[in-house]
Structure formats: C-alpha cells, structure tokens
Specification:
Blueprint: E1 6-12, E2 17-24, E3 30-35, E4 40-42, E5 56-63, E6 78-79, E7 82-85, E8 89-97
Length: 106
C-alpha cells in the first residue's frame, strides 16, 4: 500500500478555543474546532488554517451539538462576517466542492 503522510497544524483562536487542521496527501483536509468556553464569534478570521483550498468550502462532518447526540443543533458556523463556534463543543469540518458562484469569483 502507498504511504499516506499526514500533517497536523493548530492554533489557539481564543483563551478557550483552538483549531486543528489535518492535511493528508491525496485525501481531504479536516478542520477541528474545540471550544471549552462560551459561544465564540471569531472575527476577523485572521487564522490561515481556516482558509479552504481554492474551489472548496467547509461543510460540517460531525458536531457534538448535533441533536443526534442530545445537543441543541448546529448552525452553519461560517457566517458572512466570521465564524460562530458554539460553546462547550467540538466541530469537525470537511472540504467539499464550492458550487456557490458568488464565492468562486476571483
């Protein structure tokens, strides 16, 4: 089988929240948000780890706030002016094709 190398980068985005980005050669990236504090509005988004690849966007893959796990539901965290990360939660995002033509304009 082939060698799959993985790179993990991380950053603190507040006193109570961090992000980890998992990049695997030949596989989709994953973005993990962990927020052990209160709800967080992260703006401006100056952390480059959050930037998706060209032509891609982030989509929720897993959330501890999902109603499936007894949570209150997970709204889309990426909003017009920043990111909304629910308090006391973890969120895993995956890259998908960006079909929104308004955001694909260079």
């Amino acid at each position: 089988s082939g060698d799959i190398s993985t790179c993990i980068d991380g950053a603190a985005i507040s006193h109570d929240a961090l992000i980890l980005r998992f990049n695997s050669h030949g596989h989709d990236s994953r973005l993990l948000f962990v927020n052990i504090g209160e709800d967080l509005f992260y703006s401006p988004c100056s952390e480059p780890l959050i930037a998706p690849l060209p032509g891609k966007k982030w989509e929720i893959l897993f959330s501890t706030e999902s109603a499936r796990y007894g949570g209150s539901g997970t709204p889309q965290p990426e909003i017009e002016n920043g990111w909304w990360i629910s308090g006391r939660s973890a969120l895993v995002m995956t890259l998908v094709e960006n079909t929104d033509t308004k955001k694909n304009v260079a």
